[in-house]
Amino acid sequence: MTDTWLPTLRTVTPQEGYELAVKLSRVAVKMTQPDASVRETLRAVYEKDADALIAVSSVVATHFQTIAAANNYWRD
Amino acid sequence: MTDTWLPTLRTVTPQEGYELAVKLSRVAVKMTQPDASVRETLRAVYEKDADALIAVSSVVATHFQTIAAANNYWRD
Amino acid sequence: MTDTWLPTLRTVTPQEGYELAVKLSRVAVKMTQPDASVRETLRAVYEKDADALIAVSSVVATHFQTIAAANNYWRD
Amino acid sequence: MTDTWLPTLRTVTPQEGYELAVKLSRVAVKMTQPDASVRETLRAVYEKDADALIAVSSVVATHFQTIAAANNYWRD
Amino acid sequence: MTDTWLPTLRTVTPQEGYELAVKLSRVAVKMTQPDASVRETLRAVYEKDADALIAVSSVVATHFQTIAAANNYWRD
Amino acid sequence: MTDTWLPTLRTVTPQEGYELAVKLSRVAVKMTQPDASVRETLRAVYEKDADALIAVSSVVATHFQTIAAANNYWRD
Fold this sequence. Notes:
Largest interface: A-B, 27 and 34 residues
Structural class of chain A: mainly alpha
Oligomer: homohexamer
Low-confidence stretches of chain A: none
Radius of gyration of chain A: 14 Å
Order of helices and strands of chain A: HHH
């Protein structure tokens, strides 16, 4: 992952901010498990596991909090 | 999910803010598991699992924190 | 839950703020599992489960953080 | 718990703030499981469970964050 | 623990702040399980348990957030 | 770990900030389990465990929040 994948935390809308939060939650997984085929196998399991899906949602919530603050909550 | 589902974080009341937090906690699950029938099956299980319900409540709490800040805690 | 149950985040004392945090931690559970009799059954189990009690306390802590900020930490 | 147990979030030192955070982490457990004898039984188990001890520490960390902010990080 | 172990949240460098965060994450465990020999036994187990190590890291992250804010992120 | 590994929380880009967050999430593990060979063994297990990978991602999210604030969200 030497290319630029996160040039800014600014987004035009809250919804794009949320989508960025989802992306950020996935990058840490990729950096810890770089093998895409292993991740694919894991995904087949956890996408049918309610606890894992809720845990993913928790990570997204933390990142969304950061991105929302970075965008001054899209108030401007 | 190409339509607009999150135009703003502003709500009129704290209660509406809380309801928005519940919505945000669910979107990440939908984005990770897009198949509604799978989610329906999972829901039948986790809605009877205290640990899962508490975990959902935790995600809601994080999103509510973000939304409350975005609304300046409805002080205005 | 169409009635008003959260008109404001302001409370007179930190203690009332904490009690409101406990309330907020429970509402998400009610919204996810609306059947009171199911919740009653679950409660009989988790109120004797240390892990669940600590998890509940964690959700309360996050909500209390929000409510404390909303009240400017009751400094005024 | 009708008496006053949380009159203020202000403490003289960070250490007292930390002790208050420990107290706050326990109150939610008491409010969810009011029976002291049940809590005593649970405590005998979780105080020998590393996962539970770490989870308790996590709740304390969140409350300490709130209390530290309330005290302006004891900078004054 | 009647002596002074947390006189201030200020540290000279971010690294010292991180080390203080590690210390704070351990104090709550000590206050919940005061018996050093029990803690020693637990440690032998959890230091070989990836889930526990990650959970410890999570507590450290929350405390580091508090300490970083207390130090104005060492910008001065 | 007596050398300097965290001289500053400032980074030039959000992406470098994210990479620093990954680093910070690992340091607490190293400080709790200093034996590199034990960590290597644990890693072989948790890098194939979806729950552990999501938990790692959660720790990274908390650290990224701190680092993003420290950099004023790279707005300047």
